[in-house]
Amino acid sequence: MVECREKDPFCGTFFLLAKCLFQLALDCRKNLVQKESMKIGYARVSTEEQNLDLQIEALTEAGCNRIVTDQAQSGAKAAETRPGFSEAMDQLCENDILVVWKLDRVGRSIADLIHLLKLFGERGIEFRSLTDGIDTTTAGGRLVFHIMGALAEFERDLIQERTKAGLRAAKKRGKRLGRPPVLSIAQIAHARTIIDTKRETVSGMAEILGVNRSTLQRAMNREPKAHHSFQLK
């Protein structure tokens, strides 16, 4: 090994000092390039009479750097349509954390929450709910939301299956599905007779019955004498 010269600044203590200074410079440069993640709190109440103090206090204790609020904003509305939530989303960057006091402050249904979490994931935003103990920065928190997503999908499939089964059963019973017809069979037959005898046009008869001419035309085409097609005038 080549021995250090007596006055070589990179030997011994001088070398360690230089190394520390070099590492400090690198760290400072890294901090300038990379933004430190922030915690942005979001609080919401549904009416003007309700108070935000409890939520704001909890978010402050959780170490939120900023807190945005929505006053008199119903949870039934889509979160993206609320001005305060939109402001929070504008401020959030990748690796930042959105903190809420409770899950229902951002959405009232599992479907809404899953939609928002998908949106957060696409932007690299983490989510934390204080009272529900959910934190997507942890493995356990991510697992909870994966389970919630699976349950939401299962619920949608059940609803679809039940709806289809109900429609099939109604058709077997001979029940007419959809909106009730605007015109009765008697009115359609009367309109056809008037038009066949050239006493009135399709447009004129539709005006008498208080419907659009396209509605009358479709109604006549659906009836047994559908082969008598009438041209709209």
SSE succession: HEHEHEHEEHHHH
Distance from first to last alpha carbon? 106 Å
Q: Percentage of helical residues?
A: 40-55%
Uncertain spans, ≥5 residues at pLDDT below 50? 30-34, 226-233
Number of domains: 2
Tell me how many strands there are: 5
Strand order of the largest sheet: 2-1-3-4-5
Q: What's the pLDDT, averaged over the residues?
A: 79
CATH class descriptor of the largest domain: Alpha Beta
Report the sheet-strand fraction.
5-15%
Over all CA atoms, what is the radius of gyration?
34 Å
Largest sheet: 5 strands, mixed
Keywords:
disordered C terminus; 5 strands; 2 domains; 233 residues; 5-stranded mixed β-sheet; Rossmann fold; alpha/beta
Q: What do these coordinates show?
A:
This protein has helices spanning 12-33, 53-61, 83-91, 110-123, 139-172, 185-196, 202-209, 213-222, and strands spanning 39-44, 66-70, 97-100, 126-129, 134-135. The chain has 233 residues and is of the alpha/beta class. It folds into 2 domains: 39-151, Rossmann fold (3-Layer(aba) Sandwich), CATH 3.40.50.1390; 179-233, Orthogonal Bundle (Arc Repressor Mutant, subunit A). A 5-stranded mixed β-sheet has the order 2-1-3-4-5, with helices on both faces.
